[in-house]
Specification:
GO terms for molecular function: isomerase activity. It comes from Bilifractor porci. By secondary structure, this protein is α/β, with parallel strands linked by helices. Helices cover 44% and strands 18% of the residues. The chain has a single domain, classed as Divalent-metal-dependent TIM barrel enzymes (TIM Barrel, Alpha-Beta Barrel). An 8-stranded parallel beta sheet has the order 9-8-7-6-5-4-11-10. A 3-stranded antiparallel beta sheet has the order 1-2-3. Strand 5, helix 3 and strand 6 form a beta-alpha-beta unit. Helix 5 runs parallel beside helix 6 and helix 10 packs across helix 11.
């Protein structure tokens, strides 16, 4: 039931002490952030994709971030139309699945492989994002840790410079995800990533993408990096410590929302994670969990 621009519905929300308690929540737009979900293109190509979109529409999600393995413009055009039919937006294109599939890396010690990665990114990813009028996320594509980290960092920065030379005209927002040091050679903390952007003089074209899963490993707390770097991001990935949807692990998301409130954050919140058993149940519960947390801490 919708009344006075507020939504009333009954949902199951659990906390660390009392699970599956029936609550009646009054969710107001001014105390929550627009919710999005990252979906892999394996989901997009499955028969369950429209059902997933229907659930997101029912749960009043704002948009979808798509982790693609290919960038066919005609497929993206169909996808955009499908999203619009469910009142959803394409809020970003992630490149992790594509990088893994093709073994692309911006920090490869093999110069030919690095150049091939940059060329493919410009010709495929940036072109697709420009067509869709959306942002691009660079996480896995930064490159895994190899033997000579210093050489890798130089290669990574060289790749960004080459991309930026082209992207200054294309004007596609590029979000560098701060990923943990076990997975990536560069930009591990939120502040590290912002320093890369400053060195590149990329303000306004490059942004940092905080991710609670990685922050839990790399940061001493959620508050300082969010507040310190608040002008460098308009989206944040929410994932629990076990890489499941928020609420299915041990992270204290109240601290995250307190930090966002202190930073006067105006952006989106994107759920990212693996499905344990049932997408329908888990995404509804996670959305309710985050909205309830936002109400209590914002």
């Amino acid at each position: 039931m919708v009344k006075n621009n507020s939504c009333y519905f009954y949902i199951d929300v659990w906390d660390r002490i009392e699970k599956n308690r029936r609550l009646k929540l009054k969710i107001r737009d001014n105390v929550t952030f627009p919710l999005c979900l990252q979906i892999w293109d394996t989901d997009f190509k499955s028969s369950n994709f429209t059902k997933m979109l229907q659930i997101l529409c029912q749960e009043h999600f704002f948009g979808v971030e798509l982790n693609l393995t290919s960038f066919d413009i005609s497929e993206i055009e169909v996808l955009l139309e499908l999203l619009r039919s469910y009142n959803l937006r394409l809020t970003g294109i992630a490149t992790g699945a594509w990088a893994k599939k093709n073994d692309y890396s911006f920090s490869s010690e093999d110069e030919n492989a690095r150049k091939a990665s940059v060329k493919a990114f410009i010709e495929q990813v940036l072109a697709a994002a420009a067509f869709a009028k959306t942002k691009v996320i660079v996480g896995t594509l930064k490159g895994a840790v190899q033997i000579d980290k210093q050489k890798q960092l130089q290669s990574f920065f060289r790749s960004l410079c080459e991309i930026d030379a082209v992207n200054k005209k294309m004007k596609v927002p590029v979000y560098l995800e701060a990923t943990n040091h076990y997975e990536s050679c560069a930009a591990n903390t939120v502040s590290d990533t912002v320093e890369v952007i400053k060195k590149l003089h990329g303000e306004g074209r490059y942004f940092v993408l905080p991710d609670t899963y990685h922050m839990n490993m790399e940061e001493t707390n959620f508050f300082i990096p969010v507040l310190k770097n608040r002008n460098y991001f308009t989206n944040i990935h929410m994932s629990d410590n076990n890489r499941c949807f928020p609420g299915y692990g041990m992270l204290r998301f109240g601290e995250v929302y307190s930090a966002l409130k202190a930073a006067d954050y105006q952006g989106t919140v994107t759920i990212e994670g693996r499905i344990q058993n049932d997408f329908d149940e888990e995404i509804r519960n996670s959305a309710a969990f985050l909205r309830c947390t936002a109400m209590n801490f914002c």
